[in-house]
Amino acid sequence: EAIAYFRKNYKRVPIIVLTGFPDTEMAATFLRDGGIVDYLVKPVEGEKLKAAVARAMEQREVASL
């Protein structure tokens, strides 16, 4: 529900899901439908988080062109 809310009300904000309760099916659905930039499972390595944020910022910049 939170992802749908943000997609509707804040279309330019890239979404990264960070969860402690992984759900492979849910992750695949989110990624396939383009609702999120990345789906990370805690604990997450710092470099992996930085890479996800960099991808999110790149997508935001491309979307604004």
Quick summary of this structure?
The chain has helices at 2-9, 24-33, 46-63, and strands at residues 16-19, 38-41. The chain is an alpha+beta fold and 65 residues long. α2 (24-33) links the parallel β1 (16-19) and β2 (38-41).
Give an account of the 3D structure:
The protein is an alpha+beta fold and 65 residues long. Helices cover 55% and strands 12% of the residues. It has helices at residues 2-9, 24-33, 46-63; strands spanning 16-19, 38-41. The chain has a two-stranded parallel ribbon with strand order 1-2. Strand 1 (16-19), helix 2 and strand 2 form a beta-alpha-beta unit. The longest helix is centred in the last third of the chain and has 18 residues, at 46-63. The protein is globular and about 30 Å long. The model has no long low-confidence stretch (mean pLDDT 88).
